[in-house]
Structures are given as C-alpha cells and as structure tokens.
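Supplementary notes for students who missed Thursday's class. We covered one full example, reproduced here. Read the sequence, then the structure, then the short commentary at the end.
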Amino acid sequence: MNAPDVSVVVAVYNTMPYLTRCLDSLVAQTIGPDRLQIVAVDDGSTDASGAELDRYAAGHPGLFTVIHQANSGGPAAPFNRGLDAATGRYVFFVGADDHLGPDALRRLVEAADAWESDVVLGRVVGVNSRHIYQDIFARTQVDVDLFDSPLPRSLANTKLFRRELLEKYGIRYREDLPLGSDLPFTLEACYRARRISVLADYDFYYAVRRHSATNITYLSRHADRLRTVEATTAFVAELIPAGRQRDAVLARRFDHEIAKLLEDDLLGLDRETQQLVHDGIGRLVRAHLTEGIAAQLNAETRIRLALTRDGALDDLLAVIRQDARAGVPATVVEGDRRYAAYPGFRDPARGLPDACFDVTTVPDWCAKLDATALAWETDERGEKVLTVTAVSPVPDLAAAGAEPVTVSAEEIPGEVTTVDQGARGTTLRIRFRATDLLAGTGSTGQRRAVSAQAGGFDPGRAAGAATATGAAGSAAVRAPRVRATAPLVRRRGARLFVVTPVLDASGRLMISVVPVTVARVAAQLRRTLRRGR
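Structure (token representation):
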C-alpha cells in the first residue's frame, strides 16, 4: 500500500464541541481519503472528545489512527506521539479547536511538490476575534527567507512540513514545555529547510478562539510563561550563531513573548511573582538584548526592558502604572535629545541612567497616543464614523520630524487631523468609517488593534503593532482613562455585524467587528448572567 501524501496530526484534550467541526473539516478534504492519514491523539480527555474520535474512526475505516493516552499536561507529547505514527510524505498539525478550508491540504501538497518546499505556510485566519498576524500572508511566495521576512512573527506549527526533513534532523516537540512547544519545533524546521513557501490566495486554516477561553494558552500564568521564554530564548541562542540572523529571530521574542510579561496586568500580581518576572527578564536582557534588537523595538518595550536590567522592581512598576492609569508622560527636550519623563527619570533617590528613558531615536515615541474620547458620529456624507480623540506626548510633531502621524486599525487607515498643539502635546482627531471596517472583515469577524505610526501609512508596520508591542516606528494606541462607547450594528449583505471599540486588558484600543450568531449571543448572555450574580 502506498504511503499517503499527508498525515494530519491532531492533539486532543477536552475540545468538544469544537472537535466535531475540526474532524468534519478533515474528512471533507478534497485531497481524498486515499491520499490522507488522520492521526488523532486523545491526551486523557475527560469530556466526550475520546468517544468522538472513536466514532469518526468507526465511520471512516482506514482513514483514522486514534491513540488514547494518559494526560501529559500539554500538546507536545501527543503531537510527538502522532508524529511517530505518521506515514505521510508530509505532516500537517491541527489544533483540535480549529478547522481547515476544504481545499487546504490539496493546495498545500501540490505547492510543496511543485516547488520542492520543505515547509509551506497557508493563510491562517482568526475566528471569534482571535488575532492572527497577517503580514507573512501579504502575497504568495515560492521562497521566503526566515531572517528577512515576517516569518519569525508566525512560528506556530500550523504549516505543512516535509516528514523526511523532520526525521533527518530528529525534530520533535519539547515535552518539558507545557506551552510554547511549537516554537522550537517550527523554528528548527524552518532553519533546516531548503525552501519555505507561502500561499496567500486561500483561507487554509481557521484558528478558533473558544468562547470559554479555557485552553492552556489562555490560562497560562506569568511564572509558566517566563520559564517558556527562558527556554525558547536559550534554544534560539543554541541553534543560531550570534549575529544578524539570531537577532532577527530574538527580536520577535523580545517584542512579543518577553514584552507581554511586562504588560499592565503585572500590576495585579503578588509581589513574589512580580519580582520573579523582573529578575528573569533582566537576565534575558543582559544576556541577549543587543543594540540591533533594541533598534527594532518600540518605546514602551525598550523602556520597560531597560528597567528590568538597570532598575529595581518598583521602578518598573511605576512606569507601567503611569501608562495604565495616567497615560503617556511629558517629553523632556534637551538640545537634540528627547526623554520620556516617567516616574524615576532623574530622581536622585532612584539613580536610574538617563539612557533608560531616552527616546531620541525611537520614532514611535511621537506616535505613542493616549485616546481621550471615543464616539460614533455621522460624517458629512451621512455615514457612521468612529471618532477617536487622542494626544501625542510631543508638542511639535513637525520639529520632531514625525509628521504626518498616521493611525490605522491594522490594514485600514484612519483619517487623521491635528486639532491642537501645546506644551503637553499634540491633540489629534482620528476617524474610521464603519463601511471601511466592515468591508475589510471576513465572514468570521476580526479584532483589529489601533496603532499609530510616525510618518506615512505602512501596512507592514501597522500589522507589526497589532498587539502590545511591535517594531519601532509604530505604537499601539492606549485608552487608559476612556470607557468604550456603545457598539454599532450594521448589515453587510445578508448578515448583521457588530462593530465595537473595545479595550484589552492593558488599556489598548481595539476595534472588534463580529457577525451576530446564535453562539455569540448565547455566550454574551452567559457572561451577563454571571456578572449579575
């Protein structure tokens, strides 16, 4: 019997009812059952997931290989067990919450065969407002360079891998990592690959955010996440020699995984955990934060990282507290230097180096905006627009070389007007048309982060600031003292969508566009009832 073209490996732990949609999408693949093997590993589920796997295996003889094992505490062990059982020329990993487009595997395998690719990325889209970086999917590419592309931002394992490559180098998941084990796996595969390709012309993979938000990533704690970033950073340093290539990968670790440990929610943790995070990240900064990496980080990230290295825990907490509760501090201009006047700056009792607060060469400081008001208005054409009033900490944007400041909801630019300039900064008015937000959103909905850029609109930099961090030159718009305004309901075609400006846990402004569905209404009703108890 010939080996299948592709083995799909699914790690399963308590994922009903999402698992059914996942399995339906696999058995419906146009590549056909004779070219497909589905290896599903039940990692000790306590719901009906194991029984559901057995039901599908019985209904599709020869297609499924189902393995039941005791719970391992994370996806690494079941993925390894599934990979060991795989017989296909290629392997594709699927989260049991997620599902595939019906033509996904056929397209991926055909591309890998035609281009002789070892790794192929198909476009991933988010469901239920799950954010997925889209910059790597800007266009279809036969050859993608790991170090000169957005690929380090997209190292999830949701890719097609040539199994021969994985076996040649013994690439497996790190079972000592309860979360984040796919990063070392995917990174090494991409590092060893002869060719990496991207397909951007089809929705291959639907990454689902559960309404209950109960999977291991959502529930992970700071101490666990710190151990993960310490392990993955050490893995990168061991795999890739020091220099530009290592910096290209580690920059992503610093501007996302490491920086996320220093977000505003650090304020709510116990003192022992705060100290653990401060000290652990300080070690990473001293060991791995090169000047080349720092140049790729935005102002917020640079300052917080510097304070883990050069300051005490209370210095770091004071800066986070300023951003979370008071907003962006004033800018101190001295000759050709600019400094962020956070608590601790030139405080003789703290003795912190000026370099911790130096934002002279950080272009996004001018674009570090605080939203002060949100409102739905009607424009001169009678269209509904979301109007955001925001303040930059720089009094004279032109003198700082920062004009124009552009603001976008990821790929959707807003209309920006300067309202006022004064000693405390520059006030801007930003407008997003509801029709633009709706037109740019897929059928599953999308949650876009609002970011500001110093200079003209660049979709790549806008995507880079899509969450807490991002590259220098672009910064997430915060709204620490503003309550989100009411949602707007609008029809697009036959469906109703809800457009809502919302704030994430760190007070950053997001615009959510989601379809009205029975499941979503039920989830909202449950949340409302819980709040009312």
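Commentary. The longest strand covers residues 370-378. Residues 213-219, 461-471 have pLDDT under 50 and may be disordered. If anything here is unclear, bring it to office hours.
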